[in-house]
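Q: Structure tokens for this one, please.
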Amino acid sequence: MTIRVPATATFAACLLLGAVTSLSALAAPEQQLATRLPLTLIVACFVPGYLLLCGLFPNEEDMGHLLRVGLSLACSFPLIIFFALVLSITPFDRSAAAQVLAMDGLLLALAGAATWRQWREPAAQRLAYLLGTGDSSLLRDPFVLFSLALAAVLTVAAITSVTGATRELATALSVPNDGTATNPIQANSISVRVESHELTPTAFQIVVSWQGQVLGRSTPFVLEPGQMAIQHVDTTPPPGQGQTSVDILLFKQGDGVPYRQLHVWMRTIPFRPAS
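A: Here is the predicted structure, written as tokens:
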């Protein structure tokens, strides 16, 4: 038995895949990469180039199936980069959501052009994929084997990327620097910026210490995933003259061990900006 899959059915599958990817990118939280990255890799690596090649070469005599799929991988990234450069010189919104929707528009235009080229071809010459199902021939089909290999590579890449992103994505602790003359580190106070990259709302507390002695602490505060807050901690000036090294400790959920730590130099006299 032979299954004939018209090319237009694959165009519809590409559009469906792009729509699902866009919905997951817009709806899933930024930290949940595992729900978005595998689909995004497939769309970025294959779909734009495939639709472009099917529009340029609508007949199998122009380009075989394996060559078409292989060149799709080579064409997709340059096409996406070129499209991003075009968007960068336009006056339209360049937010993440706008770029996702613009990419959906590009895929829709490419699919429409490829479908129009197919309809212009004689019915007998329209691009189609013939898959045999008898005697395990489906598993010996080179197109199926190539597709399975591509899926395996993308799966491994997605798992590796998610694992690496999970290790690197961490709540940020820093001293704010807004370009003003006011020093965020005073003799009797310190300003600290905390940006949460946790997956759930998390309670934090900041403690400023000098040689194991607590100079000041903030009240506990809760940050939503992706939320940023600047905390002002009143401190007791450490002894000494000039500058003294102190530690800024960030504790999470009441843990006894610091979650993040900064080592800064603190003035023992009030800071006076240059006149």
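A few notes: The chain is about 45% helix and 25% strand. Residues 142-168 form the longest helix (27 residues).
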